[in-house]
Amino acid sequence: MFLEEEKLMIIILQTFDIDSSHATIEDISDGVAMAQALNQIDPEWFDARWMSKIKTGVGSSWRLKVSNLKKIIEGIVDYYQDSLNLHADFVRPDAVKIG
């Protein structure tokens, strides 16, 4: 099941004009491509200040990847609640397990 979801994420990211490599699961595991896509979706919310919190070039550092993913999850939840004024009862993804 996860394999199909991972493939879908890569396909979705390919619809954006992003600088970060995003052809494989390993490429997107640091969250940089997702952050760049979010910046294109709403550049006022996911602005340069928010983007500066996402570390690029993290290599294989699990800790930095998880840190990026946590920031992305929190940013999406805040965007959903504060910008879109929507409140959903959903379980947040576990960044530690993803990392």
Short description:
Belongs to the hook family. This protein is mainly α and 99 residues long. Helix content is 57%, strand content 0%.
Considering the chains and any ligands shown, give keywords for the structure:
single chain; 99 residues; mainly alpha; 57% helix; microtubule binding; CH_dom_sf; dynein light intermediate chain binding; cytoplasm
Task: Give a description of the structure.
It is globular and about 35 Å long. It has 99 residues and is an all-alpha fold. The protein is built from six helices and no strands. It has helices at residues 2-13, 25-28, 32-41, 48-51, 62-83, 95-98. Keywords: Coiled coil, Cytoplasm, Cytoskeleton, Microtubule. This is Calponin-homology (CH) domain-containing protein. Residues 3-99 form the Calponin-homology (CH) domain. It is found in: Cytoplasm, Cytoskeleton. Its main location: cytoplasm.
Secondary-structure blueprint:
Elements: H1 2-13, H2 25-28, H3 32-41, H4 48-51, H5 62-83, H6 95-98
The ordered H/E elements are HHHHHH
CA-based shape: globular
Structural category is mainly alpha
Low-confidence stretches: none
Tally of DSSP β-strands: 0
Strand residue percentage: under 5%
Average pLDDT works out at 90
How far is the first residue's CA from the last residue's CA? 17 Å
How much helix, percentage-wise, in residues?
55-70%
Cα-atom radius of gyration: 13 Å
- The oligomeric state of the chains shown is single chain
The main pleated sheet reads as: none
Number of helices: 6
